Amino acid sequence: MSQSEVTLREKIIKAGTWLFLMFIFAVIVISFGMPNVIGTSSRIDAYNAAKVGSEYLTKGEVAEYQKRMEERMMQNMKNIDEKTRKMLEEMTRGRALDEAIDRKLFTQMMNRAGFVPTSSSEPRILASFYKKQFGEFIVNGKLDKERLNEFLAQRRLTLDVVGRNMLRDYGPAKAYESLQGASYASDFAVLDDARFAATQNSYRVVAIDQASRDKQLRAKFNASEADIQNKFKTEFLSKDPKSVLDNPKRETIKATLFNEKKATLEKNFTASLVQAAKTGIDPIATFAGTKVIAIEDAGLATDLDSKKGKDNAGVTLTALSQSDVFVKQRLSAPVGQVVGPVDAGGFTYFFTVSKRSATALPQGNSYAQLDKGAQGVLTQSKDLPKDVSYEKLSESAGRVNYGTVLTAALELQRNSVRIVRYNRAEKKGE
To answer: In terms of residue numbers, what domain contains 83?
Structure first.
């Protein structure tokens, strides 16, 4: 598989995974450029975030989407620093409205297609839902509504609200099941994903955050006495001829000189790191006053943070895992060659591939000659990780196909519906 094919497949797999989770968490994670009309002339934007076709999308609904997105993201991104956490929270705020609009578009599309309960079927659907979700509140075959409402009230909900929300989502959920059930994966897709899953690399990484950089810059910065005296004359003596260069003034002048020369110091520091990289990864760590982080047997879809070890808790490698440079170079860079600097997520990274695995799984150009099919090949393969199977790969590849279909359908719906986004931030002058 070529580098470009691997990169594309990785992106598709990630996109498909998000799409698979969208209804489970009532979030559609799809980012597109949307036809935008900004409305600022009506009071309705005080309560609503957007209008999708003839339906309004309230700010409360968008806020709920954002909350669920943040909760899910934080569950999947553990052991991250505060700066990265704030960045992720800001990202959810920027995407919540887009995703809520996509959900509204999908619901409208499914309702038109007939994926919606009828008035005669609603009682049966609700009864089945209550039995499944609130079985402990059913006594002698009847739902104890009073006791259930008391339970829901503790969660600021009512039975009426829960029922309405369930019926609202019933159609899209059924459509989701139908679309996913119709998805399938060819042997070619499954084997490509298997090669992706079977590929494992080991790395050696140096991660330098801004605080460490500043510490090293200050340690390596040496203000000359001539510079201090000149700055004292211009900053102090010019204003007070009786001023004396005491220690507090000297330290203030040093700090000023450091800030003035910081850009040059940064440039020189990076140049020194690059020079050190020519002799290996260890000299970089020595020069930067940090240590080398060893990552052993990481899959291509593995977040490096999960492999870094407890003694590196203060360092995040997630930004490196997701950087374009890392994605491209991890399969093409010669073993042992230093790659960097990679600036991402507030860190400067250098890394080497210390070991690259090889798989005996067939190459794409030999798939047509397989007589056992993907399932037969993978059943006998010893290359796959223990948690990867033909069934899981087939399901994952099917989700990719499902995501492709859903994406295309949403784009068609988006182009046929007028979307108005209300933006009160533009009213600051009123």
So the answer is: 16-186+391-427
pLDDT of residue 352: 93
Give the pTM: 0.48
Helices and strands, counts by H and E, the chain: 15, 10
Cα 175 to Cα 163: distance, rounded to the nearest angstrom:
19
Give the CATH number of the domain where residue 22 resides.
1.10.4030.10
Q: Is residue 55 very low, low, confident or very high in pLDDT (cuts 50, 70, 90)?
A: confident
Are 273 and 295 in the same domain? yes
Torsion of CA 186, 187, 188, 189, to 10 degrees: 60
179 and 215 co-located in one domain: no
State how many domains the chain has: 2
Residues whose CB is less than 8 angstroms from the CB of residue 389 and which lie 6 or more positions away in sequence, other chains included: 378
Percent helix, strand and coil across the chain, each to the nearest 5: 60, 10, 25
Query: Can the peptide bond before residue 341 be classed as cis, meaning omega within 30 degrees of 0?
Result: yes
Same domain, 265 and 347: yes
Give the chain's mean pLDDT: 75
Full DSSP string of 34-60: ---EEE-SSGGGGTEEEEETTEEEEHH
